[in-house]
Structures are given as C-alpha cells and as structure tokens.
Amino acid sequence: MKERNEIEQTRTSIFTIFRVSLKLGFTSFGGPIAHLGYFHSEYINRRRWLDERSYADLVALCQLLPGPASSQVGIGIGTMRAGLLGGIAAWIGFTLPSALALMLFALLLHGLPVDSYGWIHGLKIVAVAIVAQAIHSMGVKLIPDRSRATIAAAAAALTLLWPTSGSQLLTIAGAALIGLFLYRRSEAAEASPLPMPISRRTGMACLLLFVLLLALLPIIRAVTSSHWAALMDSFYRSGALVFGGGHVVLPLLEREVVPTGWISSGDFLAGYGAAQAVPGPLFTFASYLGAIDSGIWGALIATVAIFLPAYLLVVGALPFWHTLLHNSKFRGAVVSINAAVVGILIAAFYDPIWVSSITGAYEFALALILLTMLTYWKLPTWIIILAGALGGMLIQQL
C-alpha cells in the first residue's frame, strides 16, 4: 500500500510539474534571462521547490552545458522533483505553446511567396536588431579582455571563411583546448549537494547516449540516405553544439537547412523573426523549420531532436553537479568556449542576417530604430515585432 501511495504521489507530481511549466510556457516572454526570472518567481518564491542557493547552482551548471539554459533549468527542476518523467513533463509543458504556435505559422505560410510580403521583410529586420543586442550584451560579459576578444575574432573569421558545420565544431573544440591552458585557474564555484532521484549510473547512461547519438546519426544518415535520418541528425547536432544561448543556434541551423535546399533563406529569416514574438524557448524555431520542410511530422522530429541533447546533458550532469562546478579546468574551457560563441554569433549576424535583410538605407534606418527601442527604451519584444512588421510594410510602399 505504501509503494502504491508513493506511485500515485509521483503521478500527481508529474501532472503538477506539467501544469506549472505549461503556464510558464504560455507567459514567459523576453528570452532566456527573462525565463530564469519567471522560473525563480514560480518555482522558488511561490512553490518553494528549491532554495535560493540550489537554484543559483542549477542555473550555473546549465550555463556551463551546451544547450538552451532556461529549458535545461526547467528540466533540472522537474527531474529533481519527480525523476526522469518529471524532467520530460517540465520540458513538454514549457515547450509546447511556442512549438505549436511556430508550427501553425509555418503551415499557414507554406508555399506562399513570403519574400514578397513587406511585413515578412520587417521581421527579418527585427532579427537584425535582436541579434545585434544579443551580441552586445554577450560581448560585455563574455569577452571583457584582450585574449577573449581575440578568440572571438578568430572564431568569427573561421566560421565566415569556412562555412560548414565542421568548422563550428572545430572552433568550439579548439576554444576548449585553449581554455584548458589559458584559463585553467578560473575560480570554481561553491556548490551545495542536492538530493537526486537519479543515480550516477543513470547519469552516465544519459551522457553515453548523448555521445553515441552525436557519433552514429551522421553514419546512419550517410548509409540509409533517409531524409528523416538527415533531419534528425541535423537538428540533434545543432542542439548538441550550442554554447551561449538560443541565438547561437541560428548559424548552426542555417548551415544545415538553407544550403541543402530544405528551406529558403527568406523562409528561414521570416521564421526567426516570428520566433521572437512567441513565449518560451527560442529552440522551438526548429518546430517552424521542420514544419516548413516536412509538415507536422517534420516539426515533431525537429523539435524532439534539437532538445534531446539538452535533456540528456542536464540529466547526465545532475548526479555529478558538485564535481563539475568545482572543476576549475572544466570552467576554464567553458570561459574560452563562450568567447568563441560570441564570434560564431558575429559571423551569423553578418551572414545570413545582415546580407539578407539590410539591402539599403531604409532597411538600415529601420534596424537602427528597432535596436534603439530594444536597447535604450527597453520596450517589450512584442512592440519591437509589431514596429518591425509595420516598418517593413512601409518600406515596401516607398
């Protein structure tokens, strides 16, 4: 009877996690930093699921891992609350609203000449302003000195001159090696031990599965020549190599879907602009891309594939939480990787965003106005989206 009661309690807890995270998925506007604020208000202040110190440590750990940090924090809280299924429930709840919205947007636009719509062109210019702000804010924090600025510049140059997914992987790996030596004395965080409902063996299994999928999916893609395998491989690899936040997934995805002919550059940037207008994680941009390419099934595969590395990594890392945050070499590698990420984002800002969106003085003026509204006036994202769409329509009439 006691075991049955515990099972029922777990089921109730999983449902509660889903319900709470679904509410956050509908209301969390403003990007990953804002998401962490919403999480703190709901999970810490209101529900007391973690204490302040534990939440801060979880955020620190997720920021060190590749993947969407805010989604990983939600997965981590769900996992600590109700095990593996709790983490899945937290991810589904937080992801579902924006994934559905972007999939519907893709299905409505599918087959239409989006490049001819002024408001779509305005959304592309919105992407210019938003990524420019992201580069500035990340640069202030992540490249504060000469050595890290040099790493960022080298990463940008390599990514632009060698535009392949292999170059990005090589850039991140090279930055990690540099960081092991250059920043090996980075200050390690003090982490408090947390009760974990999953064992180290389970954590190791998740980390092993992460590596196996990263290695085997390209082989399966090449051997089978299956489009579904190619879709899974492209989105899984993109999700596995993202350090520094959701905006960094842009160049990885662009290299995977535009040169292959799966999606046009216009559709890509229109979807990226629309992704800024919905709540929840920016990684659900994959739902839009998958739907444009292969309908509902494409959206489902792309969404699961791009988030799967984040889930495996955070669940795999949680049992080793204390060790990772105390490892100065690990933190040193991440310091250098973060600098390289800024460089990769700079490269993406130039191509495809700038070269596809800023084609004249009118576009540049609109981008400058939107950036000012976003950075200095601190206006909500939905106002920036609306202003960009209206500005694009006005430019079309000029």
TrEMBL record:
<protein>
    <submittedName>
        <fullName>Chromate transporter</fullName>
    </submittedName>
</protein>
<keyword id="KW-1003">Cell membrane</keyword>
<feature type="transmembrane region" description="Helical">
    <location>
        <begin position="202"/>
        <end position="223"/>
    </location>
</feature>
<feature type="transmembrane region" description="Helical">
    <location>
        <begin position="88"/>
        <end position="112"/>
    </location>
</feature>
<dbReference type="Pfam" id="PF02417">
    <property type="entry name" value="Chromate_transp"/>
</dbReference>
<feature type="transmembrane region" description="Helical">
    <location>
        <begin position="296"/>
        <end position="321"/>
    </location>
</feature>
<keyword id="KW-0812">Transmembrane</keyword>
<feature type="transmembrane region" description="Helical">
    <location>
        <begin position="151"/>
        <end position="182"/>
    </location>
</feature>
<comment type="similarity">
    <text>Belongs to the chromate ion transporter (CHR) (TC 2.A.51) family.</text>
</comment>
<keyword id="KW-0472">Membrane</keyword>
<keyword id="KW-1133">Transmembrane helix</keyword>
<dbReference type="InterPro" id="IPR003370">
    <property type="entry name" value="Chromate_transpt"/>
</dbReference>
<feature type="transmembrane region" description="Helical">
    <location>
        <begin position="333"/>
        <end position="350"/>
    </location>
</feature>
<dbReference type="InterPro" id="IPR014047">
    <property type="entry name" value="Chr_Tranpt_l_chain"/>
</dbReference>
<feature type="transmembrane region" description="Helical">
    <location>
        <begin position="118"/>
        <end position="139"/>
    </location>
</feature>
<feature type="transmembrane region" description="Helical">
    <location>
        <begin position="362"/>
        <end position="395"/>
    </location>
</feature>
